[in-house]
Design brief:
The protein has seven helices and four strands, in the order E-H-H-E-H-H-E-H-H-E-H. The protein has a four-stranded parallel beta sheet with strand order 3-2-1-4, sandwiched between helices.
């Protein structure tokens, strides 16, 4: 599977939580990883917020090594904001949705791996593919 991962899915690989089993299934199925570059910041902050320490950061570093990073140039912010007017997501989720949608135009088999209900609902509303374990 070619997959775009958001932070909720990556964190579920690092910490044992409700969605960890689904994240492991997605990880085993993923052959190519894509993510918005901001995930790097979000994941580090999530680890620190949860008191994850060195072991958690090491797990993140291993996952990050396989990622093809995508960016959102500032010239695209108006389009991102227009997209988000339909969904009213938090700012980082709006960025993930926009980045995923752009990538899915080039990679039509791309699937979103996320355990954020608002983000997955918005992706489905945009007729984008969402991974379901």
């Amino acid at each position: 599977m070619i997959a775009y991962w958001d932070t909720s899915a990556v964190i579920a690989l690092i910490f044992t939580e409700q969605h960890s089993a689904g994240a492991e299934i997605a990880k085993k199925a993923t052959t190519q990883y894509y993510a918005w570059h901001w995930l790097h910041v979000e994941a580090h902050c999530a680890i620190d917020r949860r008191g994850g320490g060195t072991a958690a950061h090491a797990k993140l570093a291993l996952w990050i090594a396989d990622v093809k990073w995508l960016d959102v140039p500032s010239a695209d912010y108006p389009a991102l904001l227009t997209l988000n007017q339909r969904h009213r997501l938090r700012s980082a989720d709006a960025g993930h949705l926009y980045c995923f949608q752009r990538a899915a135009h080039v990679l039509p088999d791309l699937q979103l791996v996320s355990f954020d209900t608002e983000l997955t609902t918005a992706a489905r509303a945009e007729n984008l593919r969402v991974f379901s374990p």
